[in-house]
Amino acid sequence: MWLKAVVITDPMLAHQVLSREAGLEKPHSRYKSPMDLLTSASHRSSLVTHDTNSALWRLVRKGIAPAFATNNIKKEFPRVVEIGQQLVRQLHACGPEAVVDMDLAAQRESLDVLGLVGFGVQFGATRSLLGGDKPGSALRALQNGMAEVQRHMGAQWRRWQVMRVFPDVRRGREELQRYQRVVEDLLAQLRARGPPVKDDTTIAAHLLRIVDPATGRGLPDELLAPEIGILYLAGVETSAHTVAFVLYLVSQHPEVEAKIAAELDGLGLLATARRPRPRLMAYEDLAQLRYLSCVIKEAMRLYPVVPMGTARQAPDTGMELGGYAIPPGAMLWVFFSAMFRSPHVWDAPDEFRPERWADVDAEFYIPAGSLPASAARPNTPEPAAQQTPSKGPVPNPEGWSADGDAPASCRPKRFIPFSSGARDCVGRSLATINYKVLLALLLGNFRFRLAEEMGGVEGVEASICMRATLQFRDGLKMHCLPCAA
Questions:
Q1: pLDDT by residue (tens digit) across 226-238?
Q2: CA 341 to CA 303: how far, in whole Å?
Q3: What is the Cα–Cα distance from 136 to 107, expressed in whole angstroms?
Q4: Order of strands, edge to edge, in the sheet holding 310-313?
Q5: Alpha carbon distance, N-terminus to C-terminus of the chain
Q6: Does 410 belong to an annotated binding site?
Q7: Half-sphere exposure of 415 (CA within 13 A, CB side)
Q8: Rounded mean pLDDT, 92-104
Q9: Number of alpha carbons in the 13 Å side-chain half-sphere of residue 252
Q10: Going from the N-terminus, what domains does the chain have, and what CATH number goes with each?
Q11: Which stretches does the entry tag as region Disordered (predicted)?
Q12: How far apart, in whole angstroms, are the C-alpha atoms of residue 212 and residue 466?
């Protein structure tokens, strides 16, 4: 109630605020307390909440970046496929009559991918879809902990010591501690293996190799725990909920489902009566899944897993933004869901139109009247026959920006689900491959239909909630109908 905030939905201004050149920090009041309460018992900052100018943030970001390099992710591709196939086998075993929580199933798959690629640990989450096993308990601890983070975001008085007299606050603290124990157990398991071997390219290995130049030693557990906690959280939550939202939307649009099936069939990745077992997916297939990629982007636009976006803090001297004077210390809130559904930015913003992404430049924003007539072009895609894909910046010899001084090469984006600038998502490459592979495998083997208990579209929409990430309150219950049947 004491916070001054400016909500930003204009892509030009968002680009200006999030750019490296702006050098604006994340506001402590929003990011520091709630998320750090979850990721470790020490409540230390993590990769998400460190100050950008801090030596520790630069050390960790630079240290783990090689784990997400293209060559490394490509090397791990067969593992991602195998884990996805394991889930497909589990769903076949359930049968079409069974009601399966596909959001939770996707979380299990993401947990196994993160376990192997991220930590070199076999969690075994896709060996079963039952909730009482150890992976299921860990996922439940994560979900409940995220719910408590959301409560803290709206009521930061919950962290005050005196408030623990209230049972609800005590229960919330216990939920945070359950997740912290999951993180501590994982860290102990990593430590027990000893120093990582030379060819270990997991995220954990890169973390453990980081040397603090001030001490000449590796990072202590109190600094490693929050990094592992945030990587675990981000690796499971974002990819899994994205998969669930795609399955929900595809189940309600048979014409989209048919186009995806045709694309997969053309690549030999669709199960049919004549080909009940699709061929093994290859890394090169990812670039050929063009329509599926459009569907995924459109789902992420309508239901961004981090809908509240990101924020920066105005400097102590204040600033000017878009012609307005911003008071010192005000929060500059780049609200993803509002930007992604703004009628000033998108044509028919509330409609599910995967075809809008057929334009290779669809993610970029070009405000009306900002370009010369020869360079101007609408934000909506042209008919396929008229498209002329651009491999570089839109021609603009004069340059343009919100204040007229940004070079043409700095093209603002209207679609930034992984954020932008220096604080963009370091794990984007792994997340993208994970959800694209899993969706190709799922939609290549099954047609998904909402279970009756979801209450149709109205029931699903009513169940969508915020627990620090956008998700379904009680999961996404569906029937998995084999394509080859």
A1: 999 999 999 999 9
A2: 10
A3: 9
A4: 5-8, 331-334, 310-313
A5: 57
A6: no
A7: 19
A8: 97
A9: 17
A10: 5-308+421-482 (1.10.630.10)
A11: 371-408
A12: 37
Structure-block tokens of residue 6:
């400016």
Say how many C-beta atoms besides its own lie within 10 A of residue 470's C-beta.
Answer: 21
Strands 477-482 and 470-472: unpaired
State residue 186 phi and psi, 5-degree precision: -65, -45
pLDDT at residue number 383:
33
Token couple for 261: 């099936």
Average pLDDT over residues 427-454: 98
Mapping DSSP onto H, E and C, the string for the chain reads CCCCEEEECCHHHHHHHHCCCCCCCCCHHHHHHHHHHHHCCCCCCCCCCCCCCCHHHHHHHHHHHHHHCHHHHHHCHHHHHHHHHHHHHHHHHHCCCCCEEHHHHHHHHHHHHHHHHHHCCCCCHHHCCCCCCHHHHHHHHHHHHHHHHHHHHHCHHHHCHHHHHCHHHHHHHHHHHHHHHHHHHHHHHHHHCCCCCCCCCCHHHHHHHCEECCCCEECCHHHHHHHHHHHHHHHHHHHHHHHHHHHHHHHCCHHHHHHHHHHHHHCCCCCCCCCCCCCCCCHHHHHHCHHHHHHHHHHHHHCCCCCCCEEEECCCCCEEECCEEECCCCEEEECHHHHHCCCCCCCCCCCCCHHHHHCCCCCECCCCCCCCCCCCCCCCCCCHHHCCCCCCCCCCCCCCCCCCCCCCCCCCECCCCCCCHHHCCCCHHHHHHHHHHHHHHHHHHEEEEECHHHCHHHHHHHHEEECCCEEECCCCEEEEEECCC
pLDDT at 329 over 60: yes
∠ CA 154-160-162, nearest 5°, is: 130
Q: How far apart are CA 294 and CA 285, in angstroms?
A: 15
Q: Range with the lowest mean pLDDT among 79-83, 206-210, 375-379?
A: 375-379
Helix (H) or strand (E) holding 339: helix 336-340
